[in-house]
C-alpha cells in the first residue's frame, strides 16, 4: 500500500481501508465515528494528512487572509452553483474507467474535487475490498495518471464530482466518495444534495460521542448508519434516511452491492441506465448525459423515496419504496441552468424546456431589436426559442472562452472589471450599431449582468434589452444549490425597474412565474420553485443555516 501511495502526487488520497473483520479497530474514513462502546475505536496511526497539489498552492495562498496582495475572483460568481454529481456502475470489469468517463460528462456539476471508490477482488479469488482515489481539481487532473484507474480495478465503482461551498474549496477531506469501515464491513457513499437539518443531527451525534473529520453533511449519513441497530444494511440505510431532512440523491457501494437512494421529495435528479456492452452492467447517474458518454441506455428515473439495490453476485435488481412518499418537488433550476441540454432530467428533455422558456418570454416580453444573442452557454437554447418566436435573427454575439476558469488577480477594481472580458468576447460585427436582445438564464446578484451589458455597449451596440428566461430569484436554495443569502439577491432587494437601472440595460424582462408554471402544465406542482416563490417544501431552519456557515 505504501508503494502505491508513493506513486501518486500529494493532494490526492489513495486508500484501501483495513477489513474490520480482521482489524477490530477499523473505523469510518474519513470520519472517526464512535467510541469503543459502539464497536469502533480511534486507530493508533493517524490518517494520511491532506495536502494541496502544487498547482493549487497559489490558489490557496490567494485565498489566505494573511496574504493581502491577492484575492480570488470567480468569473461565474453571479450564477447559482450545483454542488455535485454522482455516478454508480456495477457488473462491468471496467467499472472505474467507465465511472471516470461518466464523471467527465458531469463535470459541469462540480469542478473542485473528484473521486472514485471501487470494489476490488484479488486475483486469488479472496474477499473483495473497497479502494479509493480522491483529489482536488477536475476529473482529468485527478485521474490523469492511468495507474490510479488500474489501482481501482474491479466490477463495481461509484464516483463523485464536487463544487464546494465557501471555506472548504481546498479541503481534500471533503472530497467524496467517503469510504468507511465499521463492524459490519466497508461502505462508500456519494451524495448530491443538501441536508437542512445537518447541524442538529451533527450536534446530536457529537453529544453521543461521534467525532467528525469533515465539514460535509454527507458524513452525518455515515454516522447514522453506523449507529443504527437495524439489520440488514438496507434497513440501516433506510433508518438513517428517515432522519434526514432536505435533498439527497445517494449511491452506496459495498463489497458486493450497489445502492441508489433518492429523497422522498425527489429534489435532485438520479437516473438508471444499462450498458450496451456485453456485460449489461447497471449505471446510476445524476444526469442522462453521463449514460450517453459511456454508451448506456436510459431506462428511467429513480423515484422519490425509492431504494434500488443491485447485487453484483447475480446482477439481480431490487426496487423498494421503503420511505413514506411525499409530494415530488423536483428542482426547476435543473431545467433552467444546471443540467446539460442533452440530458433528460425529471423525465423531460432539458433543451426542449429551455427553448420553450425563451419562446414564451418572446411572446410575454417582446422587444424591437435587430438581433438576438445568448449569454453562453446556458442562455443558448432560450435565445433560440426567443429568436424563433419573435422573428428576430439569432446570432452568436458573445464568444465564450472555455479555457478560463477561476482566476486569482490583484484586487484593484480597474483590473477586476476585466474578468468578464477574459470569459466573454463580443463580436463587434454583430453588435455595432444594433439594438440587441440579450437572453440569459437568470440574474443572481446582478454583478456579472452589469458587466455583460457594459461589454456589449462598449462593442458599439445602440441598445441592450435583457431578457431572462426564468423568474426573479428572491430566495436562497437549501436543497443542494449554492446561492447567496437572500439579502444579496438583487431581485430580493429591488423591483424589475430597479434591477434594470442597476445593471444599465435599456429594458429588462423576466419570464413570469405564472408562465413558467404554465409551461410545466399538470406537473407544475411537482417542481420546487422556492427560489422564485419563497414557498419552501422543507422549511429552512435559520439557526441550522447559520451554524452550517460557521462550520464551513
From TrEMBL:
CDD domains: GPATase_N (cd00715), PRTases_typeI (cd06223). In the C-terminal section; belongs to the purine/pyrimidine phosphoribosyltransferase family. The keyword Iron-sulfur applies. Keywords: Glutamine amidotransferase, Glycosyltransferase, Iron, Iron-sulfur, Metal-binding, Purine biosynthesis, Transferase. SUPFAM superfamilies: N-terminal nucleophile aminohydrolases (Ntn hydrolases), PRTase-like. It is an enzyme of class 2 (transferase). Residues 84-313 form the Glutamine amidotransferase type-2 domain. InterPro entries: GATase_2_dom, Ntn_hydrolases_N, PRTase-like, PRTase_dom, PurF, PurF_N. Pathway: Purine metabolism; IMP biosynthesis via de novo pathway; N(1)-(5-phospho-D-ribosyl)glycinamide from 5-phospho-alpha-D-ribose 1-diphosphate: step 1/2. Coiled coil: none annotated. PROSITE patterns: GATASE_TYPE_2 (PS51278). This is Amidophosphoribosyltransferase. It catalyses: 5-phospho-beta-D-ribosylamine + L-glutamate + diphosphate = 5-phospho-alpha-D-ribose 1-diphosphate + L-glutamine + H2O. Its EC number is 2.4.2.14.
